User: Fold these one by one.
Assistant:
Number 1:
Amino acid sequence: MIRHLELHHFASHQDTEIEFGSGKNVIIGQTGSGKTNLLLAIDFAFAGEVSEITLSELIADGADAAEVILDYIEPRTGQSYRISRTLTREADGTISHECSLSNLDTNETVQKPSPVQKTLESLGVSPSVFRHVVHVAQGSFADLLKETQDRKNTLDRLLQISQLESAYQELGRQDGPISQIELRRQRNLQKKSALEAGASKLDQERKILERVAEERQQKQMQIDEAIKERNELEKTSGNTLEALTALRANEDQIAKSRATIASSSQQIEPLIAKLGQILPEQDFNKIEQQKSSEIRLYLERLESDMRAQIEESKKHEEICNNALERAALIQSRLTLAEEDRKAILNQVAAIKTYLDGKGEQPQIECDRCGSILTKEQWGKHIKEKQEEATNLEKKTAELLTNRESDKALASQQKVKLEETRANTDSLKTATILTGQILAHRQAMEDASASTIQLQAERERLVGELRLISHAEPVLADQEVVSQALTIRQRLQTLSIQIDDLAGELGRYDEIHLKPQQKRVTDAEEATDQLRRLEPEIITDEKKISLLQTVRSALREIQPAVRRGFVSRITQSANDYLTRLYGGEEIQKFELTEDYEFIVTRAGYKRHAKRLSGGQQVLTSMAFLLALSEVLSQLDFLILDEPTTHLDANRRRELVAVLENLRRVPQLIIVDHHPELLEAADTRFRISLTKE
């Protein structure tokens, strides 16, 4: 149902808005006032084009763009939609077309370009039904009576006969449901044939698997027997292995002890030879024969002597250093005394020279007061200086004696220091050599004691091994060991044998058992798949049979559906035609199953297209009203100039029929006869202004 129409610069309309109501909407106006352009705008809104008119002609003169907005309530869902279309004249003369379809209830907008050509389909309206039935253009009422294939297809689509035929054709298509199911059935039949071949071998493959499993069991038994024997030997030889391991470790330790004794004995000989060059002969002989404990005592004595020599060396070194320091001090005092004596002698000589009249007067200060001596004091001063010089000579002689004594003492201590250092070095070397001899002698003694203990342990281990291996008492030790080793060799042989048998069993599994198990599994899977596949094949056969039955029914039901609609439409059209004609001239209207319009006039049947122009209009009007009454999907009809070819009486009858019309949801009528307004629920008058 159309609710609102809005035009801007469309054809002869500058800015026009119309709110349509339900029921009958009648628009009255003079010729050329723009009535038809309103209907063209509705066509353009729904279809995006207008028959036999170019898009450029829809743009108002002097304007560059035209716009149409139409609000529509879709009868199936009750939701409101808005169709907006805009035409724009481009600079190059082409026309661009913009369109949008909006759901006013959900605010969802579908943008271009899909709605441009599919607006009607989006709203559930067939374009052919809209073009041939919904909108009857001016002067086209009689076209409804023409027998054309397009009209028949339109009526089939309107009566939903074409949907039944489409479903019939869809089921019969090469890629349709029946063909697809049949193709799947054929594939399943082929698969069934292949599965039957695999499933038929199941019993045979199972028997082969049983035989292979028995052969494998025999091989497994051989492995189990060998493992059992190995386990028994391992129980018997567990202690044997421990005893052999301990015996081998014992023999290794004995060999190491003997090697230690030989090595130490070999290294002692050159050390004793070196020591013989240092020690006195009696000491050397003692060390050569003594045990480590005695050598340790002698070593301690050597170390004590060496420490004493070191202390004595320090004492001689200290005396020598002290004597040398005193000699150096005396030497410095001798140097000062000699310098003082020379100064005194020079002063005395200077005074004597002056007194003899041969020199200048010397400037001599008093030793006590520091004043310059007078001439009368010089004689006494000379005597004092001469006595001082004599005393210095005596002191120098005494210092020389002391210096020589200290030098002699230093030389004597130095000689003793050298002797004690030489003795210390000899004692140090002897101490080192003695220490090394002591270490080797101790190692030899320790190794000898260890060897004795190890030999005793070896005897115990051999005895234990003799008991474990149940060896004869007469067997030698080595024979007992050899007998014990055979147990280990047997264990090794068994382990190798078990590994070989396990490898052989693994290869048997890979070559025989697993492939045979795979063949049995494949046969079992084939049997299982076959069991599941057979119901699928039966189900597909039932589906094919059912769909073929449905397809046949779709074709067979079409005439019955057509007859039902035709009967109801004929009955309703007769009622409307009787009211329009009052039972005169045309006694009966009939719509055949081939959609031919037959009327009975004056007792004779004839085709409706042989009626007069006005009678054709009324017959078409009766048919349209009957369609709208019978078919719920026709929620609105558009009639352009329905009074064409009608006289005043027929127009009044049409008004009377329209006044009593209640079952058509919406009717939009455009005409130039004002009396039609009497039948309107919503009235419009349209006129053309100068602007």
Number 2:
Amino acid sequence: MFKIINKRFLGCIGAVLLTALFVIPSGNSRVESLLIPDAHAGFFNKDLELFDEVIDLIADKYVYPPDFKQLFSAAIDEMLATAGNDRLNVIKTSAGQMIKGSKYEIQYNLNYDPAHDLASFKKVYYFLLDESNEKYSKEDLETAAVIGIMNSLDPYSQFLDKSSFDKSMRDTEGKYGGLGMIVTQKDDQLMVVKTMNNGPAHRAGILPNDIFSKVNGRDLKGMKIHDLAEMLRGYPNTKVTLSLKRPVENGVRTYTLTREVISIETVEYQTLDKGIGYIKINSFSKQTNDQLKDSLAQAKIDGVKAFILDLRGNPGGLLNQSVKVASHFLYRNRMIVYTQGRKKSDYKEYRAQYKNSLLHMPVVVLINRHSASASEIVAGALRDSGKALIVGENSYGKGSVQTIFRISNGSGLRLTTSKYFTPSGIDITEHGIVPEIKIVEEIGTEASIGPESIILGEKGLRTPSIRLQTADLEKFFKETDDKKTQKPANMKPLDVQMSSDINLRFAHMLLNNLTIANKKQTLDKAKEIAANIHY
């Protein structure tokens, strides 16, 4: 394999720590993250040290053989954009490209010889530096080149500056220094949605719907929510001053709070009636499996006989956490997912870990178009096992694994290093995880052939499916409710949600009176319900 510079850097890669599988639609983040020791480049001239490290990593670790002509072309284009094309004249010639500046001009060309392309890239780099008259630095141009390269690879590979890298590491930990509150933006106002029990904001008496006016004396007018979130987060034991308006009061309340390590609540649980447990997993962080264990312990106390596992809107997270979550519902040592990199030897299997699992309990998994990455691993493993029924929409379809590498200057790379496959060998990138029961806004022409049909699944496989339309289910449940003579009193929040959440309600109906994990039995019940719905 081709190495341009700094082969010694790659020797550091052997000491790694598996941490994350990240999404972005974040999430946007199905990343299997490796944190490597700082790498050190040349002893003398340190120009383009970062660039060299990035090229070496791509050459060695990228999931596909890199197209070096494309990489260097993207790097040059991004440098030209940074330098400002208004002062430069870029002309295509029969021999390649010509750049005319205020002082002189250069000509360069790119081919598929990496050494030649590197020399051409450096020629442009030093030309632009000379033309700049110190309007931008070496670091500015080099960073632009790296950003250009990473953006040319695939939608998920990305350069992370030091701040973004630190944030990425913090998010995968599932802990951060903060105030313990969830905020939102509504009608151009930044407001509190909820505070976490016993967090700094909760103890101070901050309430839902309180509206932010200032943070550390800075007026927040026109600020976006992600900017506010960054202001509220920080290192533990540091202080931040908030000014908030309470809608029912005149005036502003001011609080000075001390940030603490906040554990992100990624798992929500409630026991529903009929002995059914509802588990909502919002993301997969280092805390997820521990929080799930607490939920399952409560379910055991409550005598739960079946589970609804809600992965809707879950953008993913840590690969090892998705494996642990799926392990609770599968035979020990059953395959959950496998990954395959560029080389044949870059193959790894992940298998169920627990001897005492809930494999005999019926499970319905809810997914939608925003379920991605680690969510798709769990849904795919439970579906392929033949025990869980998948309900909802096709998932997002992100079947690639990103690895996070730390670079010597404190920045990092999120680089696609492999693809993952469900136990049956399906690459879900194109169609996502295809549910056995699809609940869609409109069925269209398929309605004419009834609710039970054949749909095109992953890899073009013809997959049996029951298709239900949202409006028909809403009408069905309304008619069911109208027939009830007694309405439940003191409804819990989730009961209220379930009354309007038709996917959740349908899953609950499927699991009523089921005592064993039998997908055929659950599907038969779904067909029976579908037959009673008006089309």
Number 3:
Amino acid sequence: MALDYRGSQGGKTAAVPGHRTLRDSVEERDRTTAATGHYYGVTELTLRDSDPIKYERFYARLHSAVLAARESARFVAASPGSREMGECLWGLTTPEGDTLAVSLGFLSHTAIFPVSVRYMASKDYDVNDGIDDGDVFAVSDGLTGGVPHPGDFYTFVPIVVDEEVVGWSVGINHLMENGAPVAGSWATFSVDTFMDGFVCPPMKTGTKLRQSQWWKALWERRTRAATMNILDDKMRLAGCAMIHEATHRLIDEFGIDYYKRAIREVIEESRRMIVDNIKQTTVPGTYTGCAFRLVKYKGLQNIWSHADKNTLIHVRGSVEPGQEGLSLDTEGSSKWGYHSYNATPGGTDCAVFLGMINSFGHNTKVTAGIDLAIERNYPSGSIYNPDNEYTSNANLWAQTIAINSVGFNAVNRAMFSRGYLEEVFSVDGNWGAFQGAGTTEDGTSYGFTNFEWLGGTGRGAYCYKDGEPLIWAAWSQIATIGDAEEFESTVPPLFYLGRKLLKGYCGHGKYRGGVGNSAVHWIVQPGKHVALTRPNGGLSCTTAVGVGMSGGYPAPSSFMISARGTNMSEIIAEGGETPRDARELLEMVDDGRLKVENLEIWKTDCPELAFDENDLFVDAAGASGGWGDPLEREPSAVIEDLNEGWVTSYDFVKNLHGVVATQNKEGEWQLDESSTVALREEMRNKRRQESVSVFDWWSNEREKVLKKDFVPEVNQMYAESLSFDKFDREFRDFWQVPEDLVFENEEE
């Protein structure tokens, strides 16, 4: 018996005269939206206003369908990232790919859905091949699908009624392993897209809500975690099938004409509310920020000589809220390069809309309305819009999250200027993860990614209170680091010795950010081989953003430690203590309790590290930034941090906050109030004595600019950024330098 996979109005697109194609739909959408300033030319919300109960019931049915898909389908998955941590999302779109409704999860992917659909429309998929109701399409390519990195995989299922595509159900999840030369989800050290792993443009992989057998074979032959990837693929399709069926039933109930009008009104309504939120919560102006990401490839690219260099990526963004919405301009950011940190416009949108949705989508339906309210400029040739179609975007998340931080903090400053306090905080994108591959003793190969420090990070300080640890993730509403046991079963040789908040690991200020996290992994019975890398955003020898908030310090960067050739077996045999976080490991090495033949602390990209029996791997990430002058922190809060152990060094606290304290017989710290007042006044006076006028600072720095007195990586960065007119004008106007001052671009 054939599977009954379609609603009563299902069908197939056909290349016949008068047939409405995907290309027709996209062109009409763009034409009417541009001409009227309203989505699809919808100037009046007639369905909503004439019968608001029916209208809201219609949308509630759509939304409940995508929510139900997530809550049911994710239990089909084998990977803990999707099943337990929520590294997934389901949604429903218009025929043109514009988002109508999304589940919990990766909300910012809503801005990317149209990229795949528009590509299929431009290539006439429905005309040349036909698109059947219940067909299955897959995409993981950044250029043609907007996917932020190849580790994120998309499934699209068309909803066809009377030979016309009327919508798409979409499922996304983050793979544990995607088959690149560097194993895991983010292929570090890729120099072009041919090293990015299992990357595919939008392609038909199944029919009638069933995947083809050849598709399963590709997962088996091209990835190291085939079983998990195949089950995750089934998970995405299962959720899409649920949405597909629910949408057909909805159309049967409400009628196709109501459906077509309602989906456009929903998006237009959302757009209007987003624009209103921007106007009501921000002060108009230009808010500019920057961040930097070091790509340290020098000495590690012995095969690809053109990529054997270090690169300092300049991340620059200007945010301008106004009467028609908000604009983001990235002109002045670096050019693309031969590394894995390039982006595409779709992938950049995915990062940027993290902050935009969180800031402005709080009281409306999460639809393409947010996309329509935010204007973006990603200049051609830049790292966010390469003019080379073969650039790698395998690890773009490690730097695009910085443009989110720049944009998010700009919005927070605009809201703070308007008088909002509880809504704004210091934003850092200091996420972490580790990934790799191994071979068991019996010859079985496997690949893995541990998402724990991606699932939950510290939230930055507010303007009125400290930030909290672990409870925040910019990319999801559901912050969770998952169960350690899940990851131990995924990576057989790695066992947790500890997973803790790391004392003192935060950005300080009047209010400190939430402290970051650290874990210690012990290698036991590694089999024939096990090795890993670390692809995270903060692992770059730089802070996540260029400045702290209102005088606060930015968060310290992520780092990792490899300790190879240890005496762990002796320590355990004797019942001794084992390290549980990075600080404890280093203390044990310093006092001789832990013997290590090779100890390396990595603050930037590291090559794939092989581990053996009793080796240790330690990671730390998730620290968040502070807010306000550290000298304004309440002394009682400093004493509380000392007594609760959130800071470990009294000398550090004294020098940072100007707080004087003594310990009683029980070891508790007590404030010396009079000495604190005197010390703080002394520190403020010293600041005044050491300070220079802005003019003197500017003059001294200008001399460095004129001499081009910078290390090669900075010179190269300026050469790239100055190739864009806007930044060139800003740079020359600010420093008042002549037009003939040129930074040489070694690439040209």
Number 4:
Amino acid sequence: MSDLDHIRNFCIVAHIDHGKSTLADRLLDVTGTLCGRERRDQFLDKMDLERERGITIKAQTVRMRYRARDGQEYQLNLIDTPGHVDFAYEVLRALHACEGAILVVDAAQGIEAQTLANAYLAVEAGLEVIPVVNKIDLPSADPDRVAQEIEEVIGLDAADVHQVSAKEGRGIEDLLELIIERIPPPRGEIGPPTRALVFDSWFDPYVGAVMLVRVVDGSLHRGMRIRMMAGGAEREIQMLHVIDPHPSAVELLGAGEVGAVTAGVKTLADIKIGDTLTGRDEPAAEPLPGFQRVKPMVFSGLYPVDANAYQDLKSALEKLQLNDASLVYEPETSVALGFGFRCGFLGFLHAEIVQERLEREYQLDLITTAPTVRYRTILRSGEVREIDSPAGLPAPADLDHIEEPIILATIHTPAEYLGPVLALCEDRRGTQKKMLHHGTRVQVSYELPLSQVIVDFQDRLKSATRGYGSFDYELTRYASADLVKLDILVNGDPVDALSLIVHRADAHRHGTEVARRLKKFIPRQMFEVAIQAAVGSRVIARTTVKALRKNVTAKCYGGDITRKRKLLEKQRAGKRRMKRVGSVEIPQEAFLAVLKLGDD
């Protein structure tokens, strides 16, 4: 038996909250990787944010040693992955570093949207999939029904479904034996040329960028000169670590192993997720396939509240991008908010997480503009331009039409909530494509504009299904739509940071809602403040913040009424003059209020 035969690389994939992290905790316990005092829930979730929200954001890896029933000792490399649709890219990268995947399904809730999506990703990557029904200790658990559901929906044999309770530790040892039996050992050449896949990275303030690699062929050792095949940069390996479960320095990483490489990489330009590391002296002829470059789907402006913090924000984004390859950004200027960055995210939750990490980890105070998606504008000249902000919309005279991104959403819901789910999708300009019934649950497919789901669709779906509904989506195409730019004017001046691109049919409702929200947050002045929503030159909604009124006739008692009239006329003239030269301060709460449209 060769060294490769004693290695198993696998990941855990599942829908959010189906027990991936708890199962990872039990595997660490049973293999003796953790000592008693180190044990804690969600051990592999390192960020405070992950522990507070109870979700996995970053995929984490750990090496375990396990002596099987056949007496042989095996090295098990586990990667725990996120479950939310916004972090599917993390899952995809983890799958490329493995030969097998444990697909976890909740014994009470059954198959959900991300269960299906992750199962298909694993099958497409050529992995051996082990279906596992978790939470069999719950009173509402029905593992046999869920096993049948796995066979009907995903196509994996119900007889191969393994039942566990990660919370109580039942069935964990049998699962470890199943991993050794079912998941194939790594395939690769033990000798040179070396090829190692970079599938993750993070930033360490002391040593710079650390690359997490899966060695496919050959080996990496300390002091070795390596070449990054994507950019051609050459480096010397300073340190090699394996995580078991804490970083432990090693001299060598052999074929089939997973570990962290430190090679003096300091700048963002020198590292690329999906790159292949090879030896400088005996280089490989071909790089490994790598990954398809992820495309951001949601865009938003990030601006520091204090203009002097611009450089701090820039530095924080650079460091965060090392940890999160799916985040993209570029400088942007707003008349209302000053200097900031236009950032691209995988989804609205991803945007929330990035903003919260910037505020927590880098002590920044930020204003976020309303999220938009990437539109295609087709000019009369035939030129096609992609825009991700209302400011980039061409002049109406040059514009032929606008195309918006369309997604195919797969929604899983109990049958009793089907009516509200269909109503929600129809309200969001959806087109029904398919409906399948699996026992008491229904799988519905809808084509929806991406702009209609990025902000509050998930929350509305959870409300409509009492928390039992779930959805997954993929971008399918662009389609022509009657879209317009909605401008918000305060005292006749457009506020660029509040502009939106909306469907013409929704423009009046959106405009009225934004004006109503702004009226709550703009403080009263000594003059009237007009808040207007306009499409082009046409005002479609208006509201007014009434002026503060000083009682200038308070000292006039008795006497001729004309004296009071003169004082009131003088006050009116003064207010007209103030209105002409006055400027309105818009508090940052007003910008945040626009995000929450439709919450009432």
